[in-house]
From TrEMBL:
Annotated protein name in UniProt: VanZ family protein
Alphabetical keyword list: Membrane, Transmembrane, Transmembrane helix
Cross-referenced PANTHER family: MEMBRANE PROTEIN, MEMBRANE PROTEIN-RELATED
Pfam families, sorted: VanZ
Transmembrane segments: 15-33, 63-85, 92-111, 123-140, 152-172
All copies of domain VanZ-like, residue ranges: 20-140
Species name: Microbacterium allomyrinae
């Protein structure tokens, strides 16, 4: 007989999947629109820089600010935790492939929508954040053993609810970033 509150049960798995979806929606909203009303930039139809050299300034774009790198890393830690809870039998490289793919989708989408530009630094840091989440889950599993899923599921419920409340407070507050300026590289007229 399975306990409906146990995360490996059907009901528990549905709760985890629902929390993961809520997290993914918040993640997309944060990455693409910085918690602002969704918009498409005017530069979406123009060519814009793609930063292929990570962690350094290029001819078209500056290096990522250290705080942005840290924030991107932290934003993706829950992705790794959720992935590890929902697909515990996956090898790290398979989960890593999903993390790279998800980060790639977000980077390409923000570039196409002109809400940001494609940056390989973000791709690397986002993936690293997810791998950190997987690593943390592995450490917790070593410590808690069979209770890991229950404890981490409860922790996920609490942190997701707190994240949704924080987003609600931010959206309701007068503090906003405002839409990012379109990312366009102007070329001098010949």
């Amino acid at each position: 007989m399975t306990d409906a509150n146990h995360p490996t049960s059907r009901a528990g798995r549905r709760v985890l999947v629902t929390l993961f979806v809520v997290y993914l929606v918040l993640l997309a909203w944060i990455v693409l629109w910085k918690l602002e009303v969704p918009w498409i930039g005017d530069a979406a139809v123009r060519s814009r820089p793609i930063k292929l050299v990570p962690f350094v300034a290029s001819g078209d774009a500056g290096a990522s600010a250290p705080i942005e790198v840290v924030i991107n890393l932290l934003l993706f830690v829950p992705f790794g935790v959720y992935l590890g809870l929902l697909a515990p039998s996956w090898a790290w490289w398979k989960a890593g492939g999903v993390l790279v793919g998800a980060s790639l989708v977000l980077e390409v989408t923000q570039h196409l929508l002109s809400t940001g530009s494609f940056d390989t630094t973000d791709l690397i840091v986002n993936t690293a954040g997810g791998l950190v989440g997987l690593g943390l889950l592995t450490l917790v599993r070593r410590r808690l053993g069979g209770r890991t899923t229950v404890v981490m599921a409860r922790f996920s419920v609490i942190t997701t609810v707190l994240a949704v409340l924080a987003v609600g407070i931010f959206v309701a507050s007068p503090m906003h970033y405002g839409p990012q300026r379109d990312v366009v590289v102007s070329t001098p007229a010949a």
